[in-house]
Amino acid sequence: MRLIYHIMIRLSVVLSVALAVWAVFFYVRIIDEINDETDDSLEDFAEQIIMRSLGGEELPSESNNSNNQYFLREITAAEALGKPQIRYADSMVYIPPKGETEPARILTTVYRDGGGKHFELLVAIPSIEKKDLKEAILYRMIFLYFALLLCILLINAWVYHISVRPLHRLLAWLNRYRMGGVNVPLKNDTHISEFKRLNEAAVRSMNRSEEVFEEQKQFTGNASHEIQTPLAVCRNRIEHLMEDESLTEAQLNELSKTLHTLEYITRLNRSLLLLSKIENSQFPDRRAIELNAVIKKCVRNCEEMYARMNVRVDIRESGTFEAVMNETLADILTGNIIKNAFVHNVCGGKTEIFISPARLVFRNTGQEAPLDARHIFKRFGKGNSRSESSSGLGLALVKSICDLEKLHVGYAFEEKLHCFEISR
To answer: Measuring CA to CA, which residue among 419, 223, 404, 391 is closest to residue 329?
Structure first.
């Protein structure tokens, strides 16, 4: 997930909580302010009633054609002691002029007149419907939340897009960078100090990687010459010794085993050097290649080389598999996987090759047990094979080339056939 989406999701959660808390606080403050103003009016109304009652004046009617009402009743001293001096409450009261009940704010107080009598006074003033107010605030807060959230997210996305342009330019430069190739210098002017340091670190890292890459190329080239030469000399000397007629059969057998071992080391060394070159991307030349023709050429070569095994090959084409890759790597890819189908086959066995525009499938007979799919593509992973001619690097080369060319290679055991599939 991109950074901007992480920021927007987290910002939305934080804003939701913040606005919810603010809405509750806003509602409580409004209700407190309304109650405070209403309570002041109740106190003034109650004070007028009490002053008239204590002064012996005529009290107004309990409902004087207005929504304000009062109820006065005499209570005992014991009741007066058990009631609070003054209390406020929200309730529903009946309005006679309207003939209906409405929400009201009620003040209840207790007082005593000059004759020692105790009275309870209840004063009611109509108030707002708090449930309606709560719903109105809720709906408006929901609308306000979405409007604010949308504006904040749009502004943040715009600010983020402008602020991280240097980062996107750096990422684009890194994606285009090809080790050992011709790369344009990084042009990423910015006034942000963190991005400046990031640019400098990226350039230093690439320069160091180029130095290491060149050192590896030199080592690979030197190793190819320095190791292959003495191996070739040893092979020639052994072959020369085997021409000596004075050698016994036992000595010839030992020299033959030594020569076979040297040939194995030579193949192993070439394969390891090739793997190193592939992993270091030392095959820059690429072009569109039709693998159909490459596969047929490899099949012809293997049929001649392993004619003694009498392996039947069936090639079925439903299209052309085309890939943009290095020509040498294409030969190695198809050659190794086809050679693998011959080397690990049985005499009189078969190999089936299916070619389509999207995938290549190679199926062959062999041992009647599946290979370990977790290890056969690893270096020196021969599975259950004990073939002495196998270096254990053929399928590792196939996997390495497929990874380099963004292809997928897999193994399966189907209908007692070993199946290798290469797909896009």
So the answer is: 404
